[in-house]
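Hi L.,

You mentioned the student needs an example of a multi-chain input paired with its predicted structure. This one should do, with 632 residues in total across all chains.
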Amino acid sequence: MQFEMKNVSKVYQASEENKVYGAKNINLTIKSGEFSALVGPSGSGKTTLLNLIAGLILPTEGTLSHGGKDITSFSLEERTQHRLDYMGFIFQDYQLLPVLTAAENIEFPLQLKNIDQKEIKERVLWALKQVGLENMGHRFPRQLSGGQQQRVSIARAISTRPQLILADEPTANLDSKTASDIIELFKKLNQEFHLTFVFSTHDQRLIDQVRTVMYIKDAQITETRINNNV
Amino acid sequence: MTNKLFLLKFSYRNLWRFPKRTFIMLASLVIGTGFIIWNLNFSESGSKEMMKKFLAQYQGRYHITHSKYYDVENRKLFNNYKTITDEDISDKTLFTTTSRRVTAPVFASGQSKTLGILLTGLDVVQETKICSLYKMIRGGRFLEPQGHREIVLGKRLAERINVKLGDEVAVIGQAIDGSIANDLLKVVGFLDLGGGDLEESLAFTQISTAQDLMVLQPETYHQRVSFDMEHETYPDLKGVAVTSWREILPEISVSVHFIDRFTWLISIIIMVVISLGLSNTLMITFFEREQEFQSLNIIGAKTSWITTSLMIELLLLGTIAVIFGDILGFIFTWICNIHPVDISLFTGGKSIIMGGMVMQPTVRLYSVPKYYWQVPVMIFFFLGLTMIYPMIRVIRRSKNAI
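Structure written out for the whole complex:
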């Protein structure tokens, strides 16, 4: 499923005179299996773009479509359901639910989808295996290191078999070694399962590993580079 | 179903996420529920128990009379010429739970004074079965069933007219045929009615003596008084009037009603105070989790799912609280059943006098089943109110972007 943005602008309007652009005339296509990053300084509009892709906010102008469906025409609840059905999310600060174990955190979006209990178990085990935490499913987030928590977050994102995974600064809170391991994990998931990744990042190690880098400045994509070595 | 169980597990664990905070909320709700139940039981037991004891002494729960015996506007007034017989009462089963009485307003003369009193003729056998008046005797004895022309007086009345046991009291009144009714009655006992006004205005004799005095036929009387204290229902009888104690003693009835309502008011105020505290704690708890609610929404949880999980949390909190609150209320009440509460503690050691008679100073509490569901309903109502503002804020904030 391909994601497309056509002539998308997002204006945050504090007053008639005071218009702030979060995104300005963006045209963007994310193909299936893409491994790409949105790169830019703080306040450039990376997170706004990620929010627009996720359908968390709607554009002031332009259209968003995913798999041919016009997301801008969806209601709030329909957009939530769309995220659940087709998207996975990885957060900078993991955002695991502290009252649930690692396995239950992974189970969470599957329960929301009302999937059969047997299949949920299989998918949780599969996701834990992919992130290398087969024996840690019973642990609560507080019993895991930062890197392990991010792995659980990744497992939660992939458990629903999404078309698109959005990751907001996924390596920002990790030490160098752990960050490298996590980047390798992203690459593996992209290559083995053809999962589409869009990162918002400052991390040069991650930028070096993605195929498409979109540089953002003042709410506009100023440059798109293709890394043919990846 | 699976999803619902997961939701329940998620909500239950979130409830205990901040154990100390939850424990404090639970404690305030449990103690509040327990106290409110105890308080309502105390009010109901207190008023009912006291009223039962009070009514069982003399007044009775209801009177069956001629339809024009009591004045409709003021039931303190009665028409002595209006009498009934057993033939007038269609429900004969009432004869076992009621007692016949003849009432005669008379002047009673002793050694030094004459006072206006109400002389009541009693069916002694029946009265000693169903009424506790005979237990109030503090000097001499109660009336003999087979005796005639005997009188027992209130202690204060005896003192005021200066008579002793064995003396004769002259009673003078008006018979229903218009003649002067007069007789000499022998004092056989004194009644201790707690020193209230009734103690100096009541005297009792055998019903046959009162009938002779009033020139009534042996089958004729003024009242059949019921002492069935376990029920609040009244018989529906044609041709005669059934007058409840609430109509005869409206000032006492109003007092009891006021105490009941006031207790509910106090209970609601207690609940409002607890709710304000709870609301504050809930707001803090929910606001601390706002970012989490946003993340849940981003992952795919609809706002309705998030709010449902919060409502289940509160429902679980309320359910645990009312279960333990009910148990606590029951235990408090049970303790006060075994060890009755001395209400003189609340009156500075002074007696409570109602309707001219002294109320029993101790109250044995008993559980009133309706409060064990009415109070929980009230708790859930206030919990619902408590949740409105935090929930609105959660709904607004959970829709925000990353």
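You could point out the following to them. Chain A is about 35% helix and 30% strand. The first strand of chain A starts at residue 3 and ends at 13.

Best wishes,
N.
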